[in-house]
Amino acid sequence: MTxxxxxxxxxxxxxxxxxxxxxxxSMVMAGWDRSRPARREVHVEGRVHLVEGDRLERIIxxxxxxxxxxxxxxxxxxx
Amino acid sequence: MPPSPASPGGGRPRRxxxxxLEPAGDGxxxxxxxxxPGPHSYIPPEPPRTAPPGDPAGAGRPGTFQGGALGGMPxxxxxxxxxPATAAMARQEAITELxxxxxxxxxxxxxxxxxxxxxxxxxxxxxxxNKTTKYEHVLPQLVAVNQNEKIKGLLVILNTVGGDVExxxxxxxxxxxxxxxxxxxxxxxxxxxxxxxxxxADRSFIAPTATVTIHPIRMNGLVIGVPQTYxxxxxxxxxxxxxxxxxxxxxxxxxxxxxxxxxxxxxDVGTVLVGAEAVHEGLIHEVGGLGQATAALxxxxxxxxxxxxx
Lengths: 79, 310
Fold this sequence. Notes:
The structure holds two protein chains of two kinds. Chain A contains one helix and five strands, in the order E-E-H-E-E-E. By secondary structure, chain A is mainly beta.
């Protein structure tokens, strides 16, 4: 992924991010260079909860069933 | 029912033209009892059955929020409604989040609903103003749906503006190869990378007012100036085209024609298909809503469980 207006580097072997969206790129990427709120990691029962502010941002777990838990959906309130 | 044709993409055979759907009873079929936990199942916490003392909202009635939806998870808000203070907090949270303390009771269902909304977020963490569907959450969720024996079918609801091509294709491939019946429903919009996700299901529906936008793949924020870039874009586009033509009735020439049509979109090339037009082009099976989609999924589940007879 490169920023708006950046040049393609043929020597860069990293796959670029391709967005296929009807929204203008400038709107989607507005503020991409601004820093996000700090995240904290909370370890719960073998899972890692990544918490941003008072919201659960996402979980890291090797048990796929954790991802069916509605309480662990991204954006869930986190006390 | 005659055997379905084999999938060009190597997935399960695609179910075509099973005719008029005849849902049993009220159209939802039998809803089985609460899911029984397997060795790895998530066990949802039981909501408290009695109202906390002095509860003015009349907790205990069906539909009254009692913190059950958020209960039981360490560290999560509303983790217990055992005390009046906690119940009050949970009720306050419901008012803040939903505008009402009354929330519908959690239904018991064997259909898993996956919503694809906003931007499909892939390798890049999108800025905060975007509503996103995170692939790192959806991919293991689909694995869990595949593994969980209590889930009989998957309903994919789409209202997406598109997003990361590889993340979208990854989701589409998993939906395509799920070992359970799948039905997709496009509401609002199923644009760009939303299209392959919609067509990945065994049966696809689109609301009469919903739209599908087909346009060329672009590389975000990148100046296209060297041949390698074109080649890469071309390869990515071919992947999407192969997937869509392999899961629908549209042929490659027609899809490319729609993709590169000029004069339809104000600031881009491409085509906007509204409801029935997407069906007419062979991209989506039927125009319909939630009722039809659910009935179709019940029908497919019945076929699967009945060994093809329904």
